[in-house]
Each structure stands twice: as structure tokens, then as C-alpha cells.
């Protein structure tokens, strides 16, 4: 049985190639039928783009996108390839998806999680840095928090305030039950993620709410400090208190963060979380993962591409970092020239503090160590936009309720390449609001076929063999302060319990 995009056998071969990283096989299949890039497995669980993003095959991700795959396509759970890449920490793929202008604001159908939530819950700080790149202007760090525009032209404050508002809304976007990315990073003890989110204006006193489908064992009205007390990471709790988290905040159960720490056996936090505590709190500098030049170089890469094409071959200044590609961008301030690929890699990976050489969030120049706040494009290059493609998937209402097509025929582009997809005109758009998964009662399931931790400290156990623990256990395990602890939380502990069945289907298909 086939589908509208080609033989299912070829589609399954492409899925296998995307999962296994077989670039030659994927290239051959797409050369024969580029529409296979939009193929999805039986039941629409995952597309080849989801498989490649989850498994970390960056070249196949780029190949699929170049052949018309929808960068914002969703799987059965409503998750995009960006969410899968953030779940598993593949920052190179996050970078590629951003170059193709993926929508970072998309939330899944089950719990309303964005890619930022997926990166925070597993501690992938580089993915967080990239996901927020379009919201952090390449300007002085103080301007982000003051809401002012400090460019050399002395522009108005409106632009800076707008950027600050957009950044704050995105960072503090809530999932089901009011859970923010800061809640999840504090719960799992990822100090680097907590520090970066706080530097990006995350609300340190955001509270969860009681309505929703999430099963919150701490209780509604809990702040990130409540979650940090449950997780037990000393440094996370210290920086939350240092940034203004209230130790006197009561949740709906009437519990202080101190009560949460005692329930879960985090006795080393009692001195810090006591309401009348006089414990000294260390001074924390700005996050080393804050990258101010990332927005500027990302926009240059989107507009001109990663391959530099100099207008004259007589005198070519090759990049001093890679010695392979011509220079295409220059660092503001010191003026040293790099190729756009090296500049993008530098802004995406650097985690060296540059406060001694420049303002917080600046990236040290690899040639002179000067603090770089932004990059500018060198003259002489022609703009080359990435081709955007539109998904051809139709929702159920579109199929059941076709529009009257007796209107004038649509105009067609005279020449459309086989890899180009024409946009869907407004005349045939669905008149009904499309709801991919309407509300329905789904039986609750146990987490990973086992019981979740209870409130009693003596009953807190860990199932090290669970898939979710194995995904999160490879990142920043050495960052937990105090006594060595087994993980006592699970990924579905604070998410919608009804989501377990669907999400396990998609994950099991990827991890098969």
C-alpha cells in the first residue's frame, strides 16, 4: 500500500536511511523522488526529518530540508524536529533548523511543551542558547535588561522594549500546569541552564497552577525554588535565592521550599531554605553560555548562506581559523575577519567567560581575544535566501469539508522546479479551525510501566533502566552538589499523564 507521495517501500527505506545515517541511500532515494522527504510512517508517527533530528544526522537533516521537507512538520504528538533535536541535545541540528527558519514557538499537542522545555528538562544548555538566538539582540547586555536600544544611531526605546518583551514571553512560556523551562531545569539540577535562563529574564517567582492534566507531586502554586528543593541541587537553589526567589512562598498545599526539601530528604538544603536563614550565598557571575553575537551571524548565514562566493578571485583573504573558506564577516570592534561558518560555530559553542575582555555575553575573538558583541557582513556578497517549503499535509476537517472550487482558477507559476512546492492559496484553505487532536479522555498510564516516586523520603526509589533516565543521564551528571543522588524524578512526573501512551509510541519508533 502506498501513499500520495510515493511508494511506501521507498518511504520506509528513506526512514531507515534517516535513522541509520545512510547519506548515500537517502541521496539516491531523494534524487528519484524528492517528495519522499515529506513521507511519514504508518499512522503519521514520525517523518524522516524527525528520525534524522533525533539521531543526530545533520547532513541528512540538511538534505531533507533542501528537498522540500517541512521544517515545522509535526509527528503524532505534535512535536517538531526542533523538539526532537533539543530532547537529545543535537545542537548542530538545532542550528541547521534555525537556518531554515523553523518556528521555535511551536508547542506539542499533549502538554504544550516548546523546544525550550525539551532542552531545559534534559540540561542541553547549548540548545537553549540557539533556541533563544532570535530573541537576544546583538547589543550590550545591559540594554537587554534595561529595555533600551543602544545602537550607535541612538534609536528610540521602543525597539529595545519590544525585544525585551518578546524574550520575556518566550522564556516564561508555560506548558501544561504552568510549568516553565526554569522549573524543569531547577528540578533536574542543571545549573548552567538555570543560570542562562535567569540571565535571559526568566521569572524566578513563576508559579504553577492547579488546572491542567499534569500530575504535580509538589502541588500547584510552586515556584522554581520549590522544584529546586525537590531536585536537591545546592547551586541551583543558591542562584535562585540570589536572584530574588522567595523562601517564604507557600504553594497551594501550604508548603514552603523548606518543607519540600524535608519531604524529599534534601537535608543539606535546610540551612539555605530556612525562612530566617543567614547562610552566606556566593556571588554568581553571568552565564558563560550567553551569546550576544549569535543573532547577527545567524541572520547573515540565513541571508547569504554558509558558502562564501567572493566576487573577485585575484585577492582572496581566507579565514584564519579554518584556512579553507574566504572571509565573509567581520567582528565589530576589533575588525578581524572570519568566514560565516566559523563565526557561527564560534558563537554556538563558546563557553569561555569574556567579562575581562568585553561586556557580559560577548564572545572572545579567536585572533585577539577582544570581546565581540556582533558581526557585520563584508561587502561584495550576493544574498542567497534559503528556500522555504510548505507542508502538503491536510487536516481532517479539510478532507471532510471541501470548499466550493467553482471560483476562478488559481494562477500557476510558469516554471516550478521539481523540488519546489507551491504555497496553498487562501481559496482552498480549511474553513474550520483545525484541531489535530480534539479533547478526549485517555486512560492514565503508569510512568514507564512502574510507580512514580511518592512523598515519603523512604519510598523514593529510582528506576535506572527507564528510557527517560537514560536520555538525561549523559548530560552534566557531575554538576549535582552535595551527596551523590540517584535521580528521583521522571520526565512524565510533572507532565500530562495522558501523554505517556502517545509519546511512548513516537519514541519507541525512533529508538527501535
UniProtKB/TrEMBL annotation:
**Can you provide one Gene Ontology molecular function annotated for this UniProt record?**
ubiquitin protein ligase activity
Query: Pathway listed for it?
Result: Protein modification; protein ubiquitination
**GO biological-process terms attached to the record:** positive regulation of transcription by RNA polymerase II
What catalytic activity is recorded? S-ubiquitinyl-[E2 ubiquitin-conjugating enzyme]-L-cysteine + [acceptor protein]-L-lysine = [E2 ubiquitin-conjugating enzyme]-L-cysteine + N(6)-ubiquitinyl-[acceptor protein]-L-lysine
User: Would I find Repeat among this entry's keywords?
Assistant: yes
Region Disordered, annotated ranges: 458-485
Q: Where is the RING-type domain?
A: 319-369
Q: Which UniProt keywords apply?
A: ANK repeat, Metal-binding, Repeat, Transferase, Ubl conjugation pathway, Zinc, Zinc-finger
Protein EC = 2.3.2.27
In what way does this protein cross or attach to the membrane?
Peripheral membrane protein
Intracellular or extracellular location(s): Cell membrane
Q: Where are the ANK repeats?
A: 44-76, 111-132, 177-209, 220-252
Basic and acidic residues: bias regions: 476-485
Pfam families in the record, alphabetically? Ank, Ank_2, RING_XB3-XBAT31
Polar residues bias locations: 463-475
Q: Which InterPro entries match?
A: Ankyrin-SOCS_Box, Ankyrin_rpt, Ankyrin_rpt-contain_sf, RING_XB3-like, Znf_RING, Znf_RING/FYVE/PHD, Znf_RING_CS
Membrane-spanning intervals of the chain = none
Concerning PANTHER family, the annotation shows: ADA2A-CONTAINING COMPLEX COMPONENT 3, ISOFORM D (PTHR24193:SF121), ANKYRIN REPEAT PROTEIN (PTHR24193)
> What protein name is recorded for this chain?
RING-type E3 ubiquitin transferase
Amino acid at each position: 500500500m502506498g501513499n500520495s507521495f510515493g511508494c511506501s517501500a521507498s518511504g520506509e527505506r528513506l526512514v531507515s536511511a534517516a535513522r541509520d545515517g545512510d547519506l548515500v541511500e537517502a541521496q539516491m532515494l531523494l534524487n528519484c523522488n524528492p517528495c519522499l522527504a515529506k513521507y511519514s510512517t504508518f499512522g503519521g508517527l514520525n517523518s524522516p526529518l524527525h528520525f534524522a533530528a533525533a539521531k543526530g544526522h545533520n547532513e541528512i537533516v540538511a538534505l531533507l530540508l533542501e528537498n522540500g521537507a517541512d521544517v515545522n512538520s509535526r509527528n503524532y504528538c505534535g512535536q517538531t524536529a526542533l523538539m526532537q533535536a533539543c530532547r537529545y541535545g543535537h545542537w548542530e541540528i538545532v542550528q541547521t533548523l534555525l537556518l531554515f527558519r523553523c518556528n521555535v514557538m511551536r508547542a506539542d499537542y499533549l502538554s504544550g511543551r516548546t523546544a525550550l522545555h525539551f532542552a531545559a528538562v534534559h540540561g542541553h544548555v547549548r540548545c537553549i542558547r540557539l533556541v533563544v538566538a532570535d530573541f537576544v539582540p546583538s547589543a550590550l547586555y545591559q540594554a537587554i535588561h534595561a529595555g533600551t536600544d543602544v545602537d550607535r544611531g541612538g534609536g528610540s526605546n521602543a525597539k529595545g522594549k519590544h525585544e525585551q518583551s518578546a524574550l520575556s514571553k518566550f522564556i516564561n512560556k508555560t506548558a501544561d500546569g504552568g510549568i516553565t523551562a526554569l522549573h524543569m531545569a531547577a528540578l533536574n539540577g542543571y545549573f548552567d541552564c538555570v543560570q542562562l535562563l535567569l540571565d535571559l529574564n526568566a521569572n524566578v517567582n513563576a508559579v504553577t497552577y492547579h488546572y491542567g492534566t499534569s500530575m504535580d507531586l509538589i502541588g500547584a502554586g510552586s515556584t522554581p525554588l520549590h522544584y529546586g528543593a525537590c531536585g536537591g541541587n545546592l547551586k541551583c537553589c543558591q542562584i535562585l535565592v540570589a536572584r530574588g526567589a522567595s523562601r517564604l512562598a507557600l504553594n497551594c498545599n501550604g508548603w514552603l521550599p523548606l518543607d519540600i526539601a524535608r519531604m524529599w530528604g534534601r537535608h543539606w538544603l535546610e540551612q539555605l531554605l530556612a525562612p530566617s536563614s543567614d547562610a552566606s550565598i556566593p556571588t554568581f557571575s553571568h552565564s558563560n553560555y550567553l551569546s550576544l553575537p549569535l543573532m547577527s551571524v545567524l541572520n547573515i548565514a540565513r541571508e547569504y548562506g554558509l558558502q562564501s562566493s567572493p566576487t573577485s578571485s585575484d585577492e582572496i583573504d581566507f579565514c584564519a581559523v579554518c584556512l579553507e573558506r574566504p572571509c565573509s564577516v567581520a567582528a565589530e570592534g576589533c575588525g578581524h575577519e572570519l568566514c560565516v561558518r566559523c563565526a557561527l560555530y564560534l558563537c554556538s559553542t563558546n563557553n569561555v567567560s569574556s567579562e575581562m575582555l568585553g561586556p557580559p555575553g560577548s564572545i572572545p575573538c579567536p585572533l585577539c581575544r577582544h570581546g565581540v558583541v556582533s558581526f557585520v557582513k563584508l561587502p561584495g556578497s550576493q544574498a542567497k535566501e534559503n528556500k522555504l517549503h510548505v507542508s502538503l499535509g491536510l487536516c481532517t476537517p479539510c478532507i471532510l469539508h471541501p470548499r466550493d472550487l467553482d471560483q476562478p482558477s488559481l494562477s500557476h507559476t510558469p516554471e516550478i522546479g521539481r523540488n519546489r512546492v507551491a504555497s496553498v492559496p487562501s481559496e482552498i484553505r480549511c474553513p474550520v479551525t483545525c484541531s489535530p487532536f480534539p479533547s478526549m479522555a485517555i486512560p492514565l498510564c503508569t510512568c514507564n510501566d512502574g510507580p512514580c516516586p511518592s512523598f515519603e523520603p523512604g519510598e523514593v526509589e529510582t528506576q535506572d533502566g527507564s528510557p527517560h533516565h537514560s536520555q538525561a543521564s549523559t548530560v552534566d551528571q557531575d554538576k549535582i552538589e552535595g551527596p551523590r543522588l540517584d535521580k528521583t524524578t521522571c520526565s512524565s512526573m510533572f507532565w500530562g499523564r495522558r501523554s505517556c501512551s502517545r509519546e511512548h509510541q513516537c519514541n519507541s519508533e525512533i529508538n527501535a
